[in-house]
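Example (one chain per record):
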Amino acid sequence: MGRISEPMQKRGYMKGVAVLKSPNVELVREAEEKGFIQKLPIEQQEVIKKRYPTDGTPPLSLSVIGDDLSLTRERVRQREAQAFKNIKRLKEGKPQTDMGRPRRDIDVSEATRLYTIEGKTEEEIATIMGCSEATISRRLRAAGVPTRPRGRPRKK
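Predicted structure:
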């Protein structure tokens, strides 16, 4: 088999051959130094560590990682993309996203206590917990907390 041409390497068209983009390699190296990799979900950590190894082993292709983890290449690529998104958010000092799943860092019992006992608004609770008002609203509804009327009070 011959050499892989430079344009094909840049675009990553060779099936089964890991072609890594240098901005991603630099981002992973920086994230490893700052400890962001350990803050990622375990599934994303596995993909990043196999795709961008720091111990000198050659990087694995998406299909090989997929075979190891019993996933499709596309699902591995999605996990890699989500990991990069989370790393960039952590680098900016923002909380990482969890792709629509309930965030584990929001304590529903604490939000319920703030809403019912202390009388705080959903907006105030969202500011305290570092998330959106819609997230707090959904969590309170799911917990069965009776909601208060929103908006301006009615004139009597």
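Caption: The two ends are 84 Å apart (CA to CA).
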